[in-house]
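Lecture 7 notes: from sequence to structure.
We start with the chain below.
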Amino acid sequence: MMQNRFSANLAFCSALALSASATLVAQNTGGMPQQPAPQQTQPSMPNPGSQNGPQQSMGDQAFVSESMQGNMAEIQMAQLAQQKSQSADVKQLAQKLESEHTQMNQKWFEPEAKALSVSEPKGPSKKDKKQMEKLQALSGDQFDKAYITATLKDHQDDLKKYQAESGATQDPNVKQIAQMGTKVVSQHLQIAEQVAKSHNVPVEGGEVSSR
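Predicted structure tokens for the same chain:
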């Protein structure tokens, strides 16, 4: 049953990569780089926790919980952007982020949380809630710039977190989730950077590379 669940996860990851590639092609006039085609086959993931010690399990549990909480924040901010933004490209970005962060939680993190006995967060962190309150008070171009800036920062932080977990975990299931998440977040960040350029929002650190 676990093998079926993670086979579905792999199919979902391929779908996300194809979706991101399609978006890049559709917006190629803006100079967005193409993503490499996903591999057709990937190995099945073993049973969770098979190589974990207590300390590593706590780290994996924290990663899963924090990732779910971060996805919740991305979803709620994206919903807010679709309501408040007057810019088509910002709304398109927000719609994509809402859809794919929702699927990441449903297809990856919620099943893994059950496997690792992690309680699902009730909502975004206090920090993210404060950020959404600030966004709620803005409108027009001010809102767009603030939302884009927040999206860039959140995805830059997420990318580092996924990459770090990919190298640190001894759980093969969590490792593969972190690796798949790295690819998806990298694609999101590239699209967000292109939207930022069209709205004259500075991008710290320049272009990112998907690894």
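Points to note: Helices lie at 2-26, 54-84, 88-115, 126-136, 140-168, 172-198. The chain has six helices and no strands.
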